[in-house]
Write a structure and sequence with these properties.
Blueprint (H helix, E strand, L loop, with lengths): L10 E7 L2 E6 L5 E3 L5 H5 L4 H24 L21 E5 L5 H8 L3 E6 L2 H11 L2 E4 L2 H4 L6 E7 L8 H11 E12 L4 H6 L12 E2 L4 H8 L2 E9 L12 H11 L4 E8 L6 H7 L2
The protein binds zinc ion.
Zinc ion binds next to loops.
Length: 285
């Protein structure tokens, strides 16, 4: 299958992990699972077992996610980046795709935002409705039918790497945003220190991740779908539990300052649709 970022079919490296194969595009560097699982097989992965996994750690996850979103300029208690409307009286709105149990989304609802979730797993969507009283549609962003041009913020943390059509997701996210709205994405960074150190044993090289983006390939994909990346930050360096433990603090700090962190967050706005960065580079050769 060709690379969805640049269209090349050439691959230059492969990782085997958890019974699947990741190949790296020889042209643009995007890692992809090849072959990709079919949509039905993907949906089947987010049932009751996934709910149990999520509920075990979702409040920790909420705290970590709020910290990274704040770093990128999105805080439930503050006005979102962009225009909050005349006098600020308009109710701010957020759409979270892949909201799982709703733990993160509930922080926005509690702060007065109009909060909408989309979640593929029905048991998780139902949990979010009953536990947090959230408005959650079961499905994908493509099937959810959310109102276009209506959200100040579209948030997807640890989601885009699970999708087999990331471009179609970005187009729908673009459609859902207000003209001054912002997209926030959190995903593992395949150019980070941990990925380079661990290779196929990297904790994010797992069966559920269909793509492994980097601080280079995700901005290129966003640009090719008409987004302007306004902020990119990374965090996490030395793997937790890896020896020697004393290296964790300095390596984490170095990884963050060099943009080599294990996980990245991007904030993007709706810019003019333009050619992806790699195409401009390639045409100069
Ligand atoms: Zn490529």
């Amino acid at each position: 299958m060709p690379c969805p970022l640049c269209g090349s079919s050439a691959a230059r490296a492969a990782w085997r992990a958890q019974g699947v194969v990741f190949v790296r595009c020889a042209s643009c560097g995007l890692w992809r699972q090849d072959p990709q699982p079919v949509a039905e097989a993907i949906a089947a992965r987010y049932g009751d077992e996934y709910l149990a996994y999520e509920t075990e750690r979702h409040m920790d996850y909420r705290a970590i996610s709020l910290l990274s979103l704040a770093e990128a300029g999105l805080r439930p208690e503050a006005a979102p980046p962009g225009d909050a409307g005349p006098g600020g009286e308009r109710r701010r709105s957020v759409l979270e795709i892949g909201c799982a149990t709703g733990a993160l989304l509930s922080a926005f609802a509690e702060a007065g935002w109009k909060a909408t979730g989309v979640e593929i797993g029905e048991s998780m969507a139902e949990y979010a409705r009953t536990r947090f009283g959230l408005d959650v549609v079961t499905g994908t962003l493509e099937t959810a039918g959310v109102e276009g041009g209506s959200f100040d913020a579209v948030v997807a943390t640890h989601l885009i790497e699970h999708l087999n059509e990331p471009r179609s997701f970005l187009r729908e996210a673009r459609r859902a945003l207000r003209p001054d709205g912002k997209l926030f994405l959190v995903t593992p960074n395949s150019d980070g220190f941990q990925a380079r150190l661990m290779g196929s044993r990297w904790r994010s090289a797992i069966r559920d991740h269909l793509y492994l983006f980097s601080a280079r390939t995700l901005p290129a994909l966003l640009a090719s779908e008409g987004f302007d990346v306004e902020y990119l930050g990374t965090w996490g360096g030395w793997p937790a539990g890896m020896r020697p433990a004393w290296l964790k603090r300095p390596i984490d700090a170095a990884a963050k300052s060099l943009g080599l962190g294990d996980v990245m967050i991007l904030r993007a706005s709706l810019g003019a649709r333009k050619e992806p960065v790699w195409k401009r580079t390639a045409s100069k050769r």
